[in-house]
């Protein structure tokens, strides 16, 4: 086996290994990671009834399986009615979490929904307060 | 029209099974799918942990000087972790005036190394495949092209392809658009040179805001875009000489019951390519798949 045939394998292993190592070092405490400019963002659809209704539909489709139909949490997945979500975190913090996820803790990124739908979900979650 | 092979009993049986699954699966499981409309290009998105995506991808083509064919695969994509998705494929094909055959299996794993979203998000992809006479065209590498589709199935089946495929997937989400780029390296374990290819895709929902009320044909249920892919030669000759290249629009529709249906006509850009490919897909995402078994049947 010559160098040309081995090199891509070594490269792939190094890249995957370094990626997994980097990932393994990440952990919770996501609120502390939110940059100030993201934390201060405001929800363009806050308290709009249509946005809340649409946000509920998105929540039922994508979030309820883990966080519960009533958003009270399920198994290891946290309640979205907690003080942490409803008071401690700003809507900007929640937006940042939905965009970035918290993969080490099992929370995927929902960036594929797009900004408008993410804000609609946040409108619904905040309406639970 | 299709007297031998292409529309024979096994193909009809397979379509009947797919139809049955299309009816039965959504009746028993919560099934929601929101996917990009790509057939060849991988985006940076991973399957959500615990979810199973059941998909069928199909391609119909008519190579120059050859027989029409239907290439088909059934995929089971499972989210092991938020950063690790695994997928198993069963492949088959039917060729007019020839035969309908099972062509093999593939097993892939995708790893997302960076925990946060960035301007460009990398995903590493590793796949092992054991196929022969494959016509699914899920990727185009090396000097794959129209001549490969002129070989009769009995002869093509003798060429076993046990291959490792590596992909670097790069994806970005910008103002509602998803832009994805794949760089592909494939190696036949029998000792052929490394073959290279690429795939590019861009797509966007027709509307970014969700409707307040349930609706089947709201604009946000449709994703439209374009895909381009092709071979880049091999270690003995990198480049686009004697490679096939394809480009086409693509669209999918997410039904309220959770079924996503996709379609794309794709056009060969040079004489080495098959002139036109018609691709179509059906998929379901079943949330918390293993939970259904833990609780008993729903």
Structural class of chain A: mainly alpha
Q: What does the oligomeric state look like here?
A: heterodimer
Question: What coarse outline of chain A follows from CA principal-axis ratios?
Answer: elongated
Give the number of domains of chain B: 1
Reported CATH architecture of chain B: Beta Barrel
CATH C-level class of chain A is Mainly Alpha
Distance between the termini of chain A: 64 Å
Question: Please, what is the CATH homologous superfamily of chain A?
Answer: Cytochrome c-like domain
Shape of chain B: globular
**Regions of chain A with pLDDT < 50 over 5+ consecutive residues?**
21-28
Instruction: List SSEs of chain A in N-to-C order.
Output: HHHHHHHH
Continuous helix count of chain B: 3
- Say which CATH homologous superfamily of chain B is assigned: monomeric porin ompg
Q: How large is the radius of gyration of chain A?
A: 19 Å
The CATH topology of chain A is given as: Cytochrome Bc1 Complex, Chain D, domain 2
Low-confidence stretches of chain B are: 22-31
Mean pLDDT over the residues of chain A: 86
What's the mean pLDDT score of chain B?
89
Helix content range of chain A: 55-70%
* Strand order in the largest sheet of chain B: 1-2-3-4-5-6-7-8-9-11-12-13
Describe how the helices and strands are arranged.
The complex is a heterodimer of chains A (129) and B (298).
Chain A: H1 3-24, H2 30-33, H3 36-39, H4 49-62, H5 64-67, H6 83-88, H7 91-100, H8 115-127
Chain B: H1 9-28, E1 52-61, E2 69-81, E3 84-95, E4 100-111, E5 121-131, H2 153-156, E6 161-174, E7 177-188, E8 195-205, E9 222-234, E10 237-238, E11 245-254, E12 260-268, E13 276-286, H3 289-294
Antiparallel strand pairs in B: 1-2, 1-13, 2-3, 3-4, 4-5, 5-6, 6-7, 7-8, 8-9, 9-10, 9-11, 11-12, 12-13
């Amino acid at each position: 086996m010559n160098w040309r045939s081995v090199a891509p394998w070594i490269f792939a292993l190094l890249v995957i290994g370094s990626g997994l190592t980097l990932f393994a070092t990440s952990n919770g405490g996501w609120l502390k990671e939110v940059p100030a400019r993201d934390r201060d963002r405001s929800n363009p659809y806050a308290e709009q009834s249509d946005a809340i209704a649409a946000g509920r539909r998105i929540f039922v489709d994508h979030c309820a399986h883990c966080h519960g139909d009533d958003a009270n949490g399920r198994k290891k997945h946290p309640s979205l009615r907690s003080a942490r979500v409803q008071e401690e975190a700003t809507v900007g913090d929640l937006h940042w979490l939905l965009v970035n996820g918290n993969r080490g803790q099992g929370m995927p990124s929902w960036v594929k929904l797009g900004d408008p739908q993410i804000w609609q979900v946040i409108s619904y979650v905040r309406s639970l307060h | 029209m299709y007297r031998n092979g292409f529309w024979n009993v096994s193909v009809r049986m397979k379509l009947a099974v797919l139809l049955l699954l299309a009816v039965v699966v959504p009746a028993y499981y919560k099934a929601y799918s929101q996917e990009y409309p790509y057939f060849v290009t991988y985006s940076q998105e991973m399957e959500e942990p615990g979810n199973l995506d059941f998909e069928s991808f199909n391609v119909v083509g008519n190579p120059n000087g050859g027989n029409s064919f239907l290439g088909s695969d059934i995929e089971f994509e499972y989210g092991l972790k938020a950063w690790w998705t695994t997928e198993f494929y069963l492949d088959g094909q039917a060729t007019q005036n020839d035969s309908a055959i099972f062509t093999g299996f593939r097993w892939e794993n995708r790893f997302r190394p960076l925990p946060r979203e960035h301007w460009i998000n990398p995903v590493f992809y590793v796949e092992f495949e054991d196929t022969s006479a494959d016509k699914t065209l899920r990727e185009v590498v090396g000097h794959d092209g129209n001549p490969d589709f002129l070989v009769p199935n009995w002869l093509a089946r003798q060429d076993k392809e046990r291959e490792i495929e590596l992909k670097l997937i790069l994806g970005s989400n910008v103002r509602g658009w998803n832009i994805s780029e794949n760089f592909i390296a494939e190696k036949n374990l029998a000792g052929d040179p490394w073959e290279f290819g690429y795939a590019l895709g861009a797509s966007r929902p027709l509307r970014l805001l969700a409707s307040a009320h349930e609706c089947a044909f709201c604009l946000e249920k449709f994703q439209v875009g374009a895909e381009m892919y092709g071979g880049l030669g091999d270690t003995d000759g990198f480049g686009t000489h004697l490679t096939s290249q394809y480009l086409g629009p693509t669209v999918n529709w997410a039904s309220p019951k959770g079924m996503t249906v996709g379609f794309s006509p794709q056009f060969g850009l040079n004489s080495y390519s098959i002139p036109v490919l018609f691709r179509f897909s059906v998929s379901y995402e079943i949330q918390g798949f293993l939970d259904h078994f833990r609780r008993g049947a729903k």
